[in-house]
Design brief:
D-Maltodextrin-Binding Protein, domain 2, 2 domains
């Protein structure tokens, strides 16, 4: 009888340990997926700053490959405009902004909680590949006859460019003020302007279509990128998983390759 009781005790303890092991594995799986609120599947709508287009397109493809049955749909544009759309009820799951100011707008409206900064970016001068205006430094942008494109002041690339010009004590009148940084880059690529102030990541993504001219660090300016799963996300589980993927080591690697720096 004593031997039988001992056997039952050992078996019971083994079952208890097995149960604990199963619980730990489930917890680890939830952490890896970035969500514990439901299955990672279906469509996730990501509103992201225009300057994130190339890096996030890559991240979206990688995420879909890692999570069969998911589809990442992006809406790229100026962070200010995307924030306004979200606060007016646009059906988005994730917001990645090029400015903490625009993310704060969404948080204040109760549309996001606890955003996380995941990258930063600095400005660079982009000129057409052949550089017809022979621009070599920031002060050249203020020369007579030089056509410069900037972002509109309300969007992050515009406010960041304004900081650069203020730091350099430089005044210039742009011939064009664009809705986002990609539009500025397009003006440069097409040769419609002699130069544009864009992010270093834009110059890198454009390859040999443009030439980049560095801005001295003493006068350059940066912007910080926060990301958040939205509180009213239609597909919250997949939204949380995508947000976690952006913040992961793999996501950071893609962003670093694109030219982004740590926040």
């Amino acid at each position: 009888m004593r031997r039988s009781a001992l056997t039952v005790t050992v078996v019971s303890a083994g079952l208890l340990l097995a149960g604990c092991g199963s619980s730990s594995a489930t917890s680890a799986s939830s952490t890896t997926s970035g969500s514990s609120s439901g299955p990672v599947s279906g469509t996730v709508n990501v509103f992201a700053a225009a300057s994130l287009k190339d890096a996030f397109t890559t991240l979206g493809q990688q995420f879909e490959a890692a999570h069969p049955g998911t589809k990442v749909v992006f809406s790229f544009g100026p962070s200010s405009g995307l924030a306004t759309q979200i606060t007016h009820g646009a059906p988005a799951d994730v917001f990645a902004s090029a400015s903490t100011k625009n993310m704060d707008q969404v948080v204040t409206a109760g549309q996001a909680l606890s955003p996380t900064n995941f990258a930063s970016n600095v400005m660079e001068i982009a000129v057409p590949a052949k550089n017809p205006a022979r621009i070599t430094q920031l002060s050249d942008l203020a020369k007579s006859g030089v056509k410069v494109a900037l972002c509109q002041a309300a969007v992050p690339c515009g406010s960041t460019a304004a900081k650069v010009l203020t730091n350099a004590k430089l005044t210039l009148t742009p011939v064009s003020e664009e809705v986002d940084v990609n539009a500025v880059l397009t003006k440069v690529t097409l040769g419609e302007v002699d130069a544009g102030l864009v992010y270093v990541t834009n110059v890198r993504a454009a390859g040999d279509k443009v030439k980049g001219i560095d801005i001295p660090s003493a006068v350059n300016a940066s912007t910080t990128y926060p990301i958040a799963t939205l509180t009213k996300a239609p597909n919250k589980a997949t939204a949380q998983a995508f947000t976690s993927y952006v913040l992961s080591a793999g996501g950071t690697s893609v962003l670093t390759t694109a030219g982004f720096a740590k926040p």
